[in-house]
Amino acid sequence: MTERTAVSRMPIAPDGRLLFGGDYNPEQWPEEVWADDVRLMKEAGVNSVTVGVFSWAKLEPRPGAREFGWLDRLMDLLHAHGVGVVLATPTASPPPWLGRLHPETLPRDENGQTVWWGSRQQFAHSSSAYRRYAAAITEDLAKRYGNHPALRMWHINNEYCTFDYGTESARAFRDWLRAKYDTLDALNEAWGTAFWSQHVETWQDVIPPRRAQYMRNPTQVLDFRRFTSDALMECYVAERDIVRRHSPAHVPVTTNFMPFWTGQDAWAWAEEEDVVSVDAYPDPRDPLGGQYNAMIADMTRSQARGPWMLMEQAAGPVNWRGANHPKPPGLNRLWSLQAVARGADAVCYFQWRQSRQGAEKFHSGMLSHAGEEGRTFAEVRRIGAELTGLGAAAGAQVPADIAVLHDWHSWWAGGQEGRPSSHVAYEEVVRAWHRALWEAHLTADFAHPGHDLSAYKMVVVPQLYLLSDAAVENLVAYVDGGGTLVSGFFTGVADPDDRVRPGGMDARLRQLFGIRTVHEWWPLEPQETVRCGEFGGTLWSEELAAADGAEVVAAYRGGELDGFPAVLRRGRAWYLSTLPEPPALRALLADAAAGAGVRPPLSGLPAGVEAVRRGELLFLLHHGRGEVTVALPDGAAYRDLLTGEEHTGSVPLGRFGVAVLGPVSKVARGSGAA
């Protein structure tokens, strides 16, 4: 991936109102309930709902049948009450009759077993029959509602996550490989098929990486990951193009990402969306749930290059953890406003009314089983009212001087079988580095290693096992241009074919970081640590020889690596050969950031308080349960858009408290609360 070309993003909140609402599934209820729904939606400040996500069987109960009457009445009702509609194509969950009549539309797992209907997402992405039926229902839906006055946005499918190892997928995989490699000689070279007698003589020898006797060819597995992301994106693009043909140019199209999901190259997917949206479900019992929420927001904002949409979150408990805990009072509000602070122009939920039947009847809704008298709905009403006063945030950017590099292809390659350690989970390493920045109050974007990085004062690489030549040259040029680069362990080891670089690390990176030789990788057991000067290292260590001119910032103490460098620095390039314990990683990154001229939005923040700037607004978010006071810059006067109160000198925050501060002289422009 190279530098991104310009993409014209459509505004999520064109009228200056943040969107607020959630998935609405009225087909689960008698129509007499709908009037009560719209009454309560207005009471809660809901101005947008997503409709039709799982309605295929309702819309097409038999092949070719169309039952749009109920949806006509619903769309008209919502429009009459001022509620906009994000209309979904229903193609994530085909009706049972499709699998019965066309078993080839059902995916096969890597063991060759059929994935049957009875849940959702039971579609084979490369099935011609599935694509034909999906296009037909999408076409008719778009023709009927493309110009409906309630339509605000199109939502294609839902949480694309299907893997398929079946016959049609195998055919499509071969076509994809032909387009990439052209010849079998090139494929054999890329896949290293000389190993274990895997040379393929004809294209018919090429199959998906199904269950095998032992470890499978890693480049075959990597390419199948790439193919699957592309095949699913073909499904998305086909439906997107259909709805665009039948809708006004100002109606955007999206599909919802799952947070930090391994199955899609979301850098590529985001370029095909008008609005980038995500579903985020931090665990309310996780003491770092707020950091995880911030990480997902930062990643989604970076994919969007600006405002983004929180398509789903939970108003209370989910139903898929071992123990599904509700959100304690105030946490839903805190995390919702945190999303706005980090660039969201829409705050939505799964779902509006909690289901009484089906697999998700214990997944919370904005209107829970307790009804309108319940605590959940009371909090939803408060959030809806407060969002109406945050029009000044709509469309505003979140400034960041730091980029965290992330690449799905590197994740796919680095997480396979046969690696030095099965204990290294890429997503946990990335989260650890983002946590260090978050706790140091340093706002960060995410970026692909091939993107233009020149706008950032500091770039961090938690771990990128696989790097292309172009990406390596990009990092070298970034440092040569005056940027500060901080890299984690086991980076630059392999090329895009998952071929280990000579010397165990790209020579250009070794020179950049001041590494003469990578002797050995020394992975650690889950509870094992190594001493590195004054701090402890976890998860990984490396036997490195420093090059002349490199500064050994910290050395290993004791054990087999005693005296070897743990942290190296050459000029503005740092290399960490272990994962420092959280306080140490935070201190290292804060030190590097300070040297690069990066400063937090506020200094002296109390523990647990997050400060984020969005446009002219300063968001203060308290992730603790006690009372704290945040000192404000001397001589500055702010008004809290949530309360209308004016603050100079300091602002108090209670349990899960939030303040959204704007300059007194400017805050009246877009603030309903002021």
Give the SSE layout.
Blueprint: E1 19-24, H1 32-44, E2 48-51, H2 56-59, H3 69-80, E3 84-88, H4 96-101, H5 128-145, E4 151-155, H6 167-181, H7 184-191, H8 218-245, E5 253-254, E6 256-257, H9 266-270, E7 277-279, H10 289-304, E8 308-312, H11 331-341, E9 344-349, H12 375-387, E10 402-405, H13 408-414, H14 426-439, E11 444-447, E12 458-461, H15 469-480, E13 484-487, H16 507-513, E14 515-521, E15 529-532, E16 535-538, E17 542-546, E18 551-557, E19 565-570, E20 573-576, E21 579-580, H17 582-595, E22 609-614, E23 617-622, E24 628-631, E25 637-640, E26 646-648, E27 650-653, E28 658-663
Parallel strand pairs: 1-2, 1-9, 2-3, 3-4, 4-5, 6-7, 7-8, 8-9, 10-11, 10-12, 12-13, 13-20
Antiparallel strand pairs: 14-17, 15-16, 15-18, 16-21, 18-19, 19-20, 22-23, 23-28, 24-27, 25-26, 25-28
Helix pairs in contact: 5-8, 6-8, 10-14, 11-12, 14-17
Question: Your description of this structure?
Answer:
This protein is α/β, with parallel strands linked by helices. The chain has three domains: 19-165 and 231-312 and 336-343, Glycosidases (TIM Barrel), CATH 3.20.20.80; 402-595, Rossmann fold (3-Layer(aba) Sandwich); 609-669, Immunoglobulin-like (Sandwich), CATH 2.60.40. 30% of the residues lie in helices and 19% in strands. Helix 5 runs parallel beside helix 8 and helix 10 crosses helix 14. The chain is globular, with a radius of gyration of 26 Å.
